[in-house]
């Protein structure tokens, strides 16, 4: 059971937009920065978003992040088949004193 | 370019120890924290702790305290993670992951991971 809650799967057609939610509490998302990672099959995770809504160099602006209260959202526009992957949210939990991740969301581009 | 290259797959018996290495290149090794994250087969990500390569200071998740040891060798820009008393449920891919530091007077780790190693599969089986 993960501390952060994500939907197990989402799907959308190529070219469409999808959002992935990440729900937590005041001890984690509510008071700390959220990051998002993309994990393509058989590869290491890759940073997509940090500090709630910032993109590292090289990440296209099709990927966006937002946070409100104790929830965060990853948005992906202009879906491509290459976006099919598992997506994880993560943050520090001030009560547990460790980094917590969501259980992951599998994105299928139909 | 930044690279984190980890050591190869390991097969260990229950009760044994494993030591995974992570060689960094393309940046100042002592300027960033190194975290370790593991992923059991078909499961999500689990944070294990960090090491400050500059000071050697460590912070382990409570679950791993007493049986994980993180060290570094600054002369070869390499971080190590050793896990002892292995059990079958320690079978996982182990990743090193770099994290920036926030430095005011003192330095503190940030908790996002901008570069990851390729992962090391550790299989624990009798």
Brief synopsis:
The complex is a heterodimer of chains A (110) and B (126). Chain A has 110 residues and is mainly beta.
Could you please describe the fold and organization of this structure?
The complex is a heterodimer of chains A (110) and B (126). With 110 residues, chain A is an all-beta fold. In chain A, 0% of the residues lie in helices and 45% in strands. Chain A has no helices and nine strands. In chain A, strands 1, 3, 4, 7, 8 and 9 form a six-stranded mixed sheet that branches. Chain A is globular, with a radius of gyration of 13 Å. The relative contact order of chain A is 0.33. Chain B is globular. The interface between A and B is medium-sized, with 26 and 21 residues.
Which segments of chain B are poorly predicted (pLDDT under 50) over 5 or more consecutive residues? none
Low-confidence stretches of chain A: none
Number of helices of chain A: 0
Distance between the termini of chain A: 28 Å
Top keywords for this entry?
A: 3-stranded antiparallel β-sheet, 0% helix, B: mainly beta, 7-stranded mixed β-sheet, 4-stranded antiparallel β-sheet
Describe the protein's topology.
The complex is a heterodimer of chains A (about 110) and B (about 130).
Chain A lengths: L8 E4 L5 E6 L11 E5 L6 E4 L13 E6 L2 E6 L8 E9 L4 E4 L3 E5 L1
Parallel strand pairs in A: 1-9
Antiparallel strand pairs in A: 2-6, 3-4, 3-7, 5-6, 7-8, 7-9
Chain B lengths: L2 E4 L3 E3 L5 E8 L7 E7 L5 E7 L6 E3 L7 E6 L4 E6 L8 E8 L1 E3 L3 E3 L5 E2 L3 E5 L2
Parallel strand pairs in B: 2-13
Antiparallel strand pairs in B: 1-3, 3-8, 4-5, 4-9, 5-6, 7-8, 9-12, 9-13, 10-11
């Amino acid at each position: 059971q993960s501390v952060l809650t994500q939907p197990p799967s989402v799907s959308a057609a190529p070219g469409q937009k999808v959002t992935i939610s990440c729900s937590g509490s005041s001890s984690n998302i509510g008071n700390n920065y959220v990051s998002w990672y993309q994990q393509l099959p058989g590869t290491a995770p890759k940073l997509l978003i940090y500090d709630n809504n910032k993109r590292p160099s090289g990440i296209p602006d099709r990927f966006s992040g937002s946070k409100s209260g104790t929830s965060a959202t990853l948005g992906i526009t202009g879906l491509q088949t290459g976006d099919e992957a598992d997506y994880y949210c993560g943050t520090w939990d001030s009560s547990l004193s460790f980094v917590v991740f969501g259980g992951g969301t599998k994105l299928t581009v139909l | 370019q930044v690279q984190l290259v980890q050591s190869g797959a390991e097969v260990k018996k229950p009760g044994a120890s494993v030591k995974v290495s992570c060689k960094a290149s393309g940046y100042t090794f002592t300027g960033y924290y190194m975290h370790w994250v593991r992923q059991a087969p078909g499961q999500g990500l689990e944070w294990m702790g960090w090491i400050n390569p500059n000071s050697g200071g460590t912070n382990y998740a409570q679950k791993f305290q007493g049986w994980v040891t993180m060290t570094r060798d600054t002369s070869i820009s390499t971080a190590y993670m050793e896990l002892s008393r292995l059990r079958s449920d320690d079978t996982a891919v182990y990743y090193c992951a770099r994290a920036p530091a926030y430095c005011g007077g003192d330095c503190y780790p940030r908790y996002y991971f901008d570069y990851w190693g390729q992962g090391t599969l550790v299989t624990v089986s009798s």
